[in-house]
Each structure stands twice: as structure tokens, then as C-alpha cells.
Amino acid sequence: MKSVEAIVLERAELISRAAVQRERLAEQLQGLERPAALVDCAMAGVQWLRAHPHLVLLAAGAVVALTPGKTFRVARRGFVLWRSWHWAFSLIREKLLP
Q1: What one-character DSSP code corresponds to residue 5?
Q2: Which residues fall within 8 angstroms of residue 55, CB to CB, at 6 or more apart?
Q3: How far apart are CA 21 and CA 78, in angstroms?
Q4: Comparing C-alpha atoms, which of 28, 21, 26 is closest to residue 98?
Q5: At what angle do helices 68-96 and 33-51 cross, to 10 degrees?
Q6: What pLDDT band is residue 98 in, cutting at 50, 70 and 90?
Q7: pLDDT 10s digits, 40-91
Q8: What residues does each domain of the chain span?
Q9: CA–CA dist 60, 50 (Å, integer)
Q10: How far apart are CA 48 and CA 7, in angstroms?
């Protein structure tokens, strides 16, 4: 059976190791602050859109109300934006989660 003194020393050592590990982890995560903020901002935007679906419907109605040529141009630009968005997030996911 361990003495009280040995238990106290072991506890102090564990607390010290945990503090060092926390510091190392904080240093490693510093590079993720900006990407995490970007993801937080994007998620807030998605939540806002989910809370205001009438605006999404209004935008879709405006696209449909445009002439066919304009509708095609807007759809093409929207597709390019969507693909760019998808590419950017996949790139971020690759860099953050190797």
C-alpha cells in the first residue's frame, strides 16, 4: 500500500504533466482559431437562413421571375458559387483534418 506522502507526490506529478499537456495543446490549436471562426460564421449564416426560409423563397421567386436568359446566367453563377463554396470547405477540411 502506498504511503500518503507517495500519493501526494504522484498527484503533484500528474497535475504538473496535465498542465504541460494543456499548454502544448493550446499551442497546437492556435493555428485553428481563424478557420474555426470562419466555420462558426458560416454556421451562423446557415442557421439564419433556416430561421428565415421566406427570404430563400423570395430569392428563388425572383430568379424564376427573371427572363429565361437572365435566369440561366443567374443559375450558372449560382452553380459556380456553390462549387467554389464546396471546394473551399473541402480544402479547409483537408487541411484541418489530415
Answers
A1: H
A2: 49
A3: 46
A4: 28
A5: 140
A6: low
A7: 888 998 898 889 889 888 888 887 787 778 878 878 898 999 899 888 888 8
A8: 52-98
A9: 15
A10: 53
The residue written with cell numbers 471546394 in the block is 87
The set of cell numbers assigned to 2 is 502506498
Amino acid type, 13: E
Q: What is the pLDDT of residue 56?
A: 85
Using alpha carbons, list the distances in angstroms from residue 53 to 3, 23, 57, 62, 65.
Answer: 66, 44, 6, 14, 18
3-state secondary structure of 66: coil
Which three three-digit cell numbers place residue 14? 500528474
C-alpha to C-alpha distance for 44 and 42, rounded to whole angstroms:
5
40, amino acid identity: D
Residue whose C-alpha cell reads 435566369 in the numeric block: 71
Contacts of residue 71, defined as CB under 8 A and 6 or more positions apart, other chains included, come to 63, 64
pLDDT one-digit tens code per residue, 10-48? 999 999 999 999 999 988 888 888 888 888 888 998 898
Looking at this protein, which amino acid is placed at residue 61? G
